[in-house]
Amino acid sequence: MAKARVAVLISGTGTNMAALLYAAKADDCPYEIVLVASNNPDAAGLKLAEAEGIATFAHSHKGLSREAHDDIMHEALVAAKTDYVALAGYMRILSPEFVGQWEGRMLNIHPSLLPKYKGLHTHERAIEAGDSHGGCSVHLVTAELDDGPILGQTPVAILPGDTSDSLAARVLIAEHQLYSRVLSDYVARETSPDFLVQQVRERAMALPEADEVVSHGMPCFGIIKGKKFAYVSLDHHGDGKTALLVKISGPDEQAQLIEIDSERYYRPAYFGDGWIAMRLDLGLNDWDEIDRWLARSWHAVAPKKLAALAEFIA
Ligand code: GRF
What domain count does the chain have? Predict the structure, then answer.
C-alpha cells in the first residue's frame, strides 16, 4: 500500500512538524512527509526538514494579497503531489478558496480543548478561567478559524502555580504525541472497509426508494422491491480488495474502463458484462465521481415512472 503524501505548513519552530516527520520514519506509518513549506523563509523548522532530506519551500506573504499567497502555497503543494496538508503552527488565516481546495484533506493542531479557546493565548485563558485541564485538539480545517470536526484531543492537567509557558511546554509534549497518531488514523481510514462501506451506504441510501440488504455477504443496495444497483465486494474469496460494483452500459465500456485503469477497475466475477468493479481501497477516492456512478446505476435499474419522478424532484 502506497503511503499517503503529507505536506506540513509551518511558520516557526516546527516542533509539531518534527514530531510528524520522526513518526513517519516508522515502516508501518501510513503517511510520508513529502514537503515542508512556510510563509516565513527564516522558519527554524525548514532547516531541520532539509537536514532530514525533506523537500522544503518558502515564500513570504509580505506584499501579497491573502489569495495570491495562498495560490503560491497551493501550487507548491500540488507540485509535490500532496494528498494531505498538516498545518503545524502555520500562522496564517486561510482564504476560503484555499480551504475549499483541500477540503477534508487539511488538518490543524490547536493548543486547547476545542471548542474552548479558539484563536491565541489559549493557555493563559484556560488558567484564568480556573480550568482543571488545558490540552490540544487536532481538527479538520474549515473556513471558520479553529473550527471544523475534531478528530482527536488530549487533556493536560493544569498544575497549581502553572504559568502559560509552563502549561504550554507540557501541552506541546501532548501535541507531539497526538498529531501523528490522529493523522495516521485519518489517512488510513480511507482504506478501511468499514469506512468505505459507510461512505457508499450514505450515498446509495440517499437515492430515491433505496434499501440495503446483504447478498452473499456483500452489502447490497437496490430499489425497494426492485432491482439492485450497487454492491460492495469485501475481500471476496480472500482477494483483499474492497470494491464498489455498479451497472454500466455493457462489455465495451467494461473493457474500456479496465484498459484506462487496470489497477482500479476489474470485471466482477459472476456479474457478467453489465457491471464494473471499482476498487475503493486504493485511497483518495473521488466521492463526487462515486456519487455519479451510483446515480447512473440507480437510473439504469429504476422503473421508468420512478426515474421520471426523481428527475421531476431534482
Ligand atoms: C503549537 O502550539 C500548535 O498547537 C499551534 O502553534 C504551535 C506551533 O508550535 N498551532 P511548533 O512550531 O510546532 O513548535
Answer: 2
Residues 177 and 217 in one domain: no
Please work out whether the CB of residue 111 comes within 6 Å of at least one atom of ligand 1. Answer: yes
Which positions ≥6 away from 14 have C-beta within 8 Å? 8, 36, 43, 44, 45, 46, 48, 49, 88, 89
Last residue of a domain, one of 164, 189, 214: 189
Residue 16 CA, closest ligand 1 atom number: 13
Average pLDDT (215-236) is 94
Helices in 135-226 by DSSP H: which ranges? 164-189, 193-205
pLDDT at 312: 65
The protein residue with its alpha carbon nearest to ligand 1, atom 1, reads 89
From the CB of 268, is ligand 1 less than 6 Å away?
no
Nearest of 263, 290, 277 to residue 2 by alpha carbon = 263
Given a cut of 90, is residue 10 above it in pLDDT? yes
Identify whether residues 180 and 257 lie together within a single domain. no
Q: Which residues of 212-251 are buried (b: 16+ CB within 10 A; e: fewer)?
A: eeeeeebbbbbbeeeebbbbbbbebeeeebbbbbbbbeee
> Which atom of ligand 1 lies closest to the CA of 175?
4
Distance of alpha carbon 110 from alpha carbon 87, whole angstroms: 9
- Domain span including residue 86: 4-189
pLDDT of residue 1: 65
CA of 198 to the centre of ligand 1 (A): 34
Each residue of 102-139: pLDDT tens digit?
999 999 999 999 999 999 999 999 999 999 999 999 99
pTM: 0.84
The pLDDT tens digits for 25-46 are: 999 999 999 999 999 999 999 9
